[in-house]
Amino acid sequence: MLIRHHVEITRQALASEVGPRALEVIIRANVAQDSLRYQLFHDHFHFDNNQFEKSYAYIEEQRALIAPALGRGDAPSAWQAFGRMLHTVQDFYAHTDYIPRWLSRFEGQTPPAPEQVDPVSSEILGHPDLRSGKLYYPLEALAFIPFLRKFILPHLPADSHAHMNHDGHETSAHFDYVFHAAVKRTRVEFEKTAALFSSELREQFVDK
Ligand SMILES: [Zn+2]
């Protein structure tokens, strides 16, 4: 997903939950996951290439770092771990077919507004056919360049990242659903994470 969307999603979800200093550290750590060195060979950071188990494990690995960091008085490390896990959580909706599956429930009808999207349908999350886009390098890399995209697309298979991604309005008709699902899921993960702390650690974490 484009960096500006990660920023906006995280702000919308958390601006009323955490203080400005915490929010900035969380956002910086989130978008750093898209630096070039984490694009290649880090599929599980982005839910790419059907790396579902590794992606879920990465989320829990980062979540597990948060309480110990707060316990030793290192709130910035806690916010960074939270930012890294949110990147993966948000990419889930941009890189899998979760949203098309959710929308397919309303075929032949007007679907609900994007704000009504359910980001945690257990039926879809647990569906054995849930897929994410595969990265067919080196051709795939060229599809990220906007003016080349239309020439490259016909040469990539239907299960490629280039065809399946919902990284922005430019590449997906469903992007508003992706955006709202990611905002809602970010809040869900915030509550789930904060529920693990004592009230004292929670105070440090939200930093208000
Ligand atoms: Zn990413």
Please write out the topology.
Blueprint: H1 3-14, H2 20-32, H3 52-71, H4 75-95, H5 98-103, H6 122-125, H7 139-143, H8 146-152, H9 161-164, H10 175-194, H11 199-206
Helix pairs in contact: 1-2, 1-10, 2-4, 3-4, 4-10
Bound molecules: zinc ion (ZN).
Structural account:
By secondary structure, this protein is an all-alpha fold. The chain is 58% helix and 0% strand. The protein has one domain. The protein has helices at 3-14, 20-32, 52-71, 75-95, 98-103, 122-125, 139-143, 146-152, 161-164, 175-194, 199-206. Helix 1 (3-14) crosses helix 10 (175-194). It has eleven helices and no strands. The site of zinc ion has 6 residues, from helix 4. Zinc ion is lined by residues 1, 33-34, 46, 87, 91.
Search tags:
single chain, 208 residues, mainly alpha, 58% helix, binds zinc ion
Shape: globular
Strand content: under 5%
Number of domains: 1
Kindly, what is the distance between the CA atoms of the first and last residues, rounded to a whole number of angstroms? Answer: 29 Å
Structural class: mainly alpha
User: How many whole angstroms does the radius of gyration measure?
Assistant: 17 Å
- Ions, cofactors, ligands: which are bound? zinc ion
Helix content: 55-70%
Largest sheet: none
What's the mean pLDDT score?
A: 95
Total of helices: 11
Q: Helix-strand pattern, N to C?
A: HHHHHHHHHHH
Overall number of strands: 0
Which spans of ≥5 residues are poorly predicted at pLDDT below 50?
none
